[in-house]
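During data preparation, we tokenized the protein backbone, and the record follows.
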Amino acid sequence: MDLSSTKPVGPADRTARPRIWAMGISRLRDLFREIAGEFDERADVRIVTRAYEDALSAIAEAGTARPDVIVAAGSNGGFLKTRAQVPVVVVSPTGFDVMQALARARRDASRIALVSAGETPPEVRRFVAAYGLDVQFASYQSAQEAEACVHDLHDRGIETIVGPGLVTDLAASAGMGAVFLYSHASVRKAVETALEVAYATHAEAFRRQRLDNLLQHLRDGVVALDARGRVEAINERLASALGVEPAAAVGRALVDLRPELRTLRGEDGDALATVRGVRYVVHRGPLVDRGVTSGSVLTFQESRAVERLDRALRSQPNTQQFAARYTLDDVVGASAPMARVRDLVRRYAKSDATVLVLGESGTGKEMIAQSLHALSVRRSYPFVAINCGAFPEALLESELFGYEEGAFTGARRGGKTGLFEAAHRGTLFLDEIGEMPPSLQSRLLRVLQEREVIRLGSTEPIRIDVRVIAATHRPLLAAVEAGTFRADLYYRLNILNVGLPPLRERAADIPALAATLLVQAARREPRLAERVREADDAMRVLGATQATLARYRWPGNVRELQNVVERIAVELAEEVDENDPGAACAALAPDALQAIAPELFAAPPDAADADDADAQTLHARRRRAEADEIRAVLDACGGDRDRACAMLGISKTTLWRKLSAK
């Protein structure tokens, strides 16, 4: 408390644009520059050509003007993520980035190396293996290791290196071919993620400030202590609570007034104290007069009031950060499988039971979860989502359950509200639940059973009212049998379930889906926006290519279709005659589609490997193992194929086909 200042603390500024620093050099810097303008209205994106220790120095020198979030890539991103005092989003290459980069590399070289900052992601190795590509893998942790790695690959006869900017620059300097791994799409996605992180940080700061403002106006007990810890002044409310007269308390130590207060320490901050059977939250802060600290101010507030206030804040509809963006109207598709999904969503939205959403990656599991929330009685309250496979175990625990101040080294002052609390009276969506570590599965089960959470570092349970929707692309029942997923948690989650069909099993929906996605993509291309405004426009443009789109297997499902449509939109925009604003967009020819998305015309892996006996044997083994797993699920379901399909996230047609495969 500053006695020389009477200026009130104003509300948080919710109109300020988040400050994002895009930190990179060379090729990555150029990518940042090319996409930065897209975010001018939403963020202050500053490109900082500093890395490693220099980047940390730049952050420290910025002082109060430091960024809300940093976007970086490669080893520089990993370095900053573990050392910077602000959140860091690391640019991650997509499967399409890897595919494109390797394709470019193979045009000019036969001996290629894919070099990663840190361990090469398993999905990248699987991707390369699936397509039978002859690629060497290497990794590095620091600039020195990167240089040594490039020299070693050069000595081993590698002709072209695919990787982040640091290694591609080194490769070029060594006279080797160099293909930069990142794309505009992956950098754009990282900046979007950084925006979400910044919005979350701003919202949390605003919430804390609002709570502080409310506490300033409560009629709490207050006492001012001098530098020796003796009472200088005390208000009537606190004196009454302590059972003393205000005048009699002046000049005495608090512990002399009530022995119970000996538990209060001298450090600034919050503590708990019980006086005459009433529990208080006690806040200690400095007493400042003309810039000089002359003592302390202690504010006593009944803990029940704090709990009521916190519940009231958590119960209010949240900001856009915790709002469902999609409804069932956004789910495109009139096929029979999707009609059943819609029917299940409408029915299950009326219930408050836990729902398990099953489906391959890219089938729209979160969209279905948001649709369930939007149709439920909880629609006016938060929809909070978290990917259980995207966080290390310790971080996932603190994100879900929150923590108290001092719970661990580096814990935020004042603690942190967990996502269960943030979702109070709303819905918590646990994506990729199959990736949750076993130790956290136990805690999650207890929360689902008891409807209360305990923050890290606390012993006080907090009651919550949350509906949980979980999703996974894994067959959870098989994980239960393998011992990697708790059976009791599985049955607690799988009260209601929705199985989403892969795109290849709803080919009839592909024309409408592609048209919808093209209209959305056209809005981001100024030259195309006025020419492809409605689904009918998109249908006309895509008409000659729909057969090809419907014939492709779409291993990446709707997400892969969206990727292809984005490329189509970019190419269509290039063909627009800007001198004729009224001209319609030309229809896309099949040969043009082949140039844009050659993967749609490639032979499927099984056909390509038809002459390879070893590959045939491997495929046969995989089919048999898959059939065995399906039979185990069928047995567990008592032969009920509907339940088995829901648990496996496949259709009856797929189940029959996989069981019949030789």
